[in-house]
Amino acid sequence: MSEKVNVDVKLGINKFFVDEGNPHIELVENPDPAEFAKLEAACPAGLYKRDENGNIHFDSAGCLECGTCRILCGDTIIKKWHYPQGTFGIEFRYG
Amino acid sequence: MSEDKFDVIIVGAGLAGCISAYLLAKAGLETLVIERGNFPGSKNVTGGRLYAHSIEKIFPNFAEEAPVERCIVHEKVSFMDGSSSVTLDYASPEAADLGSRSYAVLRSKFDQWLAEQAESEGASIVPGVHVDDLIVRDGKVCGVIAGGEEMEADVVLLADGVNSMLGQKLGMVTGVNAHNTGVGVKEVIELSRQQINDRFGCMDNEGAAWLFVGSPSDGQMGGGFLYTNEDSVSLGLVFGLHNIDKVSKSIPQMMEDFKNHPTVKPLIAGGKTVEYSAHVVPEGGYDMVPKMVGDGVLIAGDAAGLCLNIGFTIRGMDLAIASGEAAANAIIKAKEAGDFSEAGLASYKTTLDNSFVMKDLQLYKKVPGFLDNPRMFNQYPTMMTGIMKDLYTMNGTSAPLRKIVMPHLKQAGFMNLIKDGFKGATAL
């Protein structure tokens, strides 16, 4: 039953206006692995990734702007979190 | 430098913001709504079902005109393990009383309609602008700072959603933490109108609301949902964030497994996902409601934590609408008296206290604590599917009914059942 989810395909359906070069979420350097693991599990957009070598990756493009990562790790490994500037980010066509 | 001063600036063109803007503009107040999305609704997500009673009061017979999807006439709740489910199904014709109905809605469409109503009364709605900060002088909120520009107003209404960055900055909103919130994820899956009618047993314009308890949220507090739209279904799940370190899989994986559950898969077969969305849901109930009134400022809707999950119904939008209305009336009163201080705006809180909003939140105050129990989402759904499996399986062994049921009750724990049953009876 358990087919591995491909979140990137789902995000590909959405309409985004990415503010290139101006990420609205930033992580601290060398984030605590236990905190990062929470975000790997929780982020609906699957933006917090760890590769086979254990290296972590994060890119705020594709963010659905739910605020989950800020709630979980706003005091720990998230250095900066604000909404994208006006007109940028996700645009829900259904919502 | 501000050019001119508004009576009211509203941050956020969601339900609370637009309802308030409509009523304020109608009363002749100069009202500005600032929305960070490209159009009202473009940043908003619902599960989606709107209980009509509070909006019906403001726009009688609104569903004739507003873009609602389907009137809910089927209520279903399924208890699920990884592969099976037991479902309770209640069907009833649409209520004759318009205020007793509920509708599936999609916010991107619905909020635009609501914003148009506010605009037609003379409210100014400015989309595509993010409010960065508030102007505060001597503890009084005097306006907003957006796009480097200062704009002043007698009152600022924060209808900026569950994360209310501005309410937090003011120190009024303090309860947005993992314990009080869940995250919802949702796919809108396109099907034909006829497919929906056939699969959910309804006619055009009628639809189903379906909740799924158990495996969708990985046996933790939360659950799956399905609402039928005109020609799509909204399928998703909500997960209580404080249990994130107890999961066996990621939330996106939970969603994928939910879609592939044998009970759900045929419902969406052949459908095409047209959007994937997520949003945080305030789930703390009464205990997370913040200080809602300050000097020159009010907080409404999700920003005020106004949401009520009692297990078999989940509401937020009807509370947002009622709070937007109460905020507008309080501001109109303050304007008449020329007093925009906390005391001058205090009727907002008393109106809400005397309305269903705070009464219901108070009534179900203990429910979040009662629901935050993995037995509700793991042992009990498994117990129910287990009993059903043994009841309906014929394989040549003879056993009396009590011998079929008892082992399942025993596994869940008699004491647990009694304890949780009692807790549930007092919480609800």
From TrEMBL, chain A:
User: What Gene3D superfamilies is this protein classified in?
Assistant: 3.30.70.20
- What InterPro entries does its record include? 4Fe4S_Fe_S_CS, Fd_FixX
Q: Can you tell which superkingdom this protein's organism belongs to?
A: Bacteria
**Coiled-coil positions:** none
The protein's UniProt keywords, in alphabetical order, are: Electron transport, Iron, Iron-sulfur, Metal-binding, Transport
* GO molecular function per UniProt: iron ion binding; iron-sulfur cluster binding
Transmembrane residues, as ranges?
A: none
Describe the task this protein carries out. Answer: Could be a 3Fe-4S cluster-containing protein.
Query: Could you tell me what this protein is called?
Result: Ferredoxin-like protein
